[in-house]
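Changelog-adjacent note: as of this version, every example in the card shows the full chain rather than a window. The one below runs 275 residues end to end.
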Amino acid sequence: MPAIPDEHVVRVLRPFVAATGPVLRGLRDADPFRLGRLARRRALELQQGGHETAPAPTTRRGRVGRAFRTVRARVLDRLATSKLPGTPRWQTMSPEERDQWWVSRVGRFTSVVASIPGIGGALARRLPVSDILGLGAQGLVVCAIASEHGMDGRDEQVRLLASVLFGRDVDPRRHGDAHGADVEREAGELAGTVSTEREERGHLSALASAVWRMGKTLWGLQGELDRRPQGNRFWRALANLPFVGALASYRSERSGLKRAARAAARWVAREQGRG
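Full-length structure tokens:
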């Protein structure tokens, strides 16, 4: 008999799943250098005939200006065909390609968050920051993959998370309402101000805090943590050593994140095949 009952696992995972919506939207749209906005603008210009040529300039200043505009246009053309949400390229990407984008996006973001001193205050000094953020990242990527493959139901994603992260086969329908008032309240506390923040720097700070809170929530399932997808044994061993431990811990969590993504994709394909 499992140490933690299914009802408790479902109670922890439901608010997490409910909070992933605004957090994943924030991670997708976070654009501190405005590259995504430039890419979308250039893609629209190209669709409207943005390659129109102007008469050749006759002055040196004019030629320099034209050279600058040419370089800028080439950079923007490259952005317009990049794999960024909102670009034409994104619309043609397969779900599998989008899965890999999420692995890269979430993994890089959480590695940056892990480098922020005092991200969790006094609690961060007592708990393993990389493990907590790694667990939160795995949960976010698993839910993102489910959505990219058309599996948006909360209880479906709870089942997926329980299976991939903890090796548990649960039936959430037996344990209350996925949209109950308590679920919504806890989800709001986890997401925080992600959905309301406007200024980009504040938005990124709100995202970092949300990912930290979500990781701590899953960390509460202590008896199940050994089952989650782990990184390469080599990197896990090095993570215990001084000096190289931080890098090894990051590499281990990245490896575990990729394993979680693959397991999630297999689970979704299997479930959809049954339907």
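Structural remarks: The two ends are 30 Å apart (CA to CA).
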